[in-house]
Design brief:
elongated; 19 strands; 498 residues; single chain
């Protein structure tokens, strides 16, 4: 097995920025392979070719020897082809293989949900059975044998199962190892038990406690049970799902049984995109040695929202999907009290229509102190991070979280709840020791949340103290360079785990 030599890594994912994205998985799937490649490892990515992907714009081309491959879906033979392209990157070339089948992927403009009904596609089980099986046909046809197959979330969770159940004695496939990363335990890929007939596994697997959960065929459970090593996206989230059966949707006992092979690694952020010193979207670039330049961004941003600029008034910001699990209910419950403080507040986000109405009403009631943009703009997100002083992220649960890391890097001090990746990345400011990079509260409680917001607002007036808090956050290394090294260490653990 490889020890210190460069590794061959096949990264299997259901979404990939900039081609298709529903959440942070797409960003991870682009950033981590690029950093691993920059370190000298050979990385290739496999992803479905959805109909929304522009073949010409993405420079996707046919590969003659990878045309008209097939896999079995129960008794049905499904033919697919593999097309190729590269990640758009100035730094490195990372090859992408697109699994192309018109019926299951090409005809869909959306990834997992019918855009008309808003419901999951009824054949999602079939779609990702085919995708998982295609991985092995691709490897065998290529003759390129990876050391590691890195699988992500329930859509790829059958790959470790098929490796153990079918390919463990195959000459081309028996020697690689599988790592399964869970980005969020709330999404598990649970299907009617009748879907078992489509898997192509021996009947005894239906009675396997590692495949069925609460009377359903559970893809996530299959991955957790079958992979050589598993991980999630922060040590804090790992700790929580080991303790809280509800948070893991019933997987606690399985995770405890895998505890010695279950790791927590915090994601990174793309420092070529999120860096106040080079950010192309903001009015004035700055760093920890030129903090006065941040005030220029504050003035431009606050005036864009139609509010009056005052350097002595802290600007609080929220950039979020507007749902309860993001703590938006806490923000609305504490909103009137926050408005009693000497602050201005800006919000960017979209989600629950009830929250849209609430914030619309607040924008009218507090038009001199609060403004919102109920939608999403990447450019505006950058400007808000650069132009605000305090960032609110009081999530109920947060597997990793990215915005708190963006905020720290931009010198925008976060107020977060102590959960998941927020607990791992934000250290509560200690006034006696003058240590910490943000503000943190423990219980999901509007009063506790408000008290920590008020504490941040009060300390904002102590300019030297506030500058130290900002600099403490800005000097942290949340880059993918740091995270990718931790992943390489984990890959080597996987390979040593026979």
């Amino acid at each position: 097995m490889p020890s210190k030599k460069n590794l061959k890594i096949l990264f299997v994912t259901s979404e990939l920025f900039p081609f298709m994205k529903t959440g942070g998985l797409a960003d991870v799937s682009a950033s981590l392979p690029q950093e691993l490649t920059a370190m000298g490892h050979e990385v290739r990515i496999v992803v479905p070719k959805y109909g929304a992907i522009d073949t010409r714009k993405a420079k996707i081309h046919d590969v003659v020897r990878l045309k008209d491959l097939s896999v079995k879906l129960g008794e049905k033979e499904v033919v697919f082809s593999v097309k190729s392209s590269f990640l758009p990157s100035q730094k490195v070339r990372v090859q992408i293989y697109f699994i192309d089948n018109e019926e299951y992927f090409g005809s869909r403009k959306s990834l997992y949900y019918d855009p008309v009904s808003g419901l999951p596609y009824e054949d999602n089980d079939e779609r990702f059975i085919i995708f998982s099986k295609s991985i092995f046909e691709l490897i065998k046809k290529l003759g390129w044998i990876p050391d590691i197959i890195h699988c992500n979330d329930w859509q790829t969770a059958l790959v470790p199962l098929y490796h153990r159940a079918i390919y463990s004695e195959d000459d081309q496939c028996k020697n690689f190892r599988t790592l399964f990363t869970v980005h969020n335990f709330e999404y598990q890929g649970a299907f009617d038990i009748s879907a078992f007939a489509k898997l192509g596994l021996p009947p005894e697997y239906l009675n396997d406690n590692n495949l069925v959960h609460e009377g359903k065929l559970n893809f996530l459970k299959a991955g957790l049970s079958s992979a050589h090593v598993i991980n999630t996206v922060s040590e804090g989230y790992r700790r929580e799902v080991l303790e809280n059966n509800g948070l893991s949707l019933g997987m606690k006992d399985l995770l405890i049984s895998k505890k010695d092979k279950f790791y927590g690694l915090v994601n990174g952020i793309d420092s070529s995109v999120w860096n106040p010193d080079t950010d192309k979207f903001i009015a004035k670039n700055y760093n920890s040695k030129s903090l006065p330049n941040k005030l220029i961004n504050k003035k431009v941003m606050i005036e864009r929202f139609g509010l009056v600029y005052d350097p002595e008034t802290p600007v609080i910001s929220v950039i979020s999907r507007l749902f309860d699990y993001k703590g938006i209910d806490l923000i609305t419950e504490a909103f009137e009290k926050i408005m009693t403080l000497k602050v201005q507040l800006v919000l960017l986000g979209t989600g629950d229509r009830n929250f849209h109405k609430i914030f619309d009403n607040y924008a009218k009631k507090y038009k001199d102190k609060f403004a919102c943009y109920l939608g999403f703009s990447d450019e505006l997100a950058h400007q808000i991070e650069a132009g605000s002083d305090i960032y609110l992220m009081p999530s109920k649960h947060e597997p990793c979280g990215l915005n708190q890391m963006y905020s720290l890097v931009y010198g925008t001090v976060p107020v977060v709840r102590e959960t998941g990746g927020l607990a791992d990345t934000v250290t509560r400011y200690d006034e006696e020791k003058n240590t910490g990079n943000g503000f943190k509260f423990v219980n999901y409680d509007k009063e506790e949340f408000f008290e920590e917001v008020k504490r941040a607002v009060n300390l904002f007036q102590k300019k030297n103290v506030w500058a130290n808090i900002m600099k403490n956050g800005m000097k942290a290394d949340f880059s993918w360079q740091a995270s990718s090294k931790r992943y390489v260490d984990l890959y080597r653990k996987v390979l040593a785990n026979d």
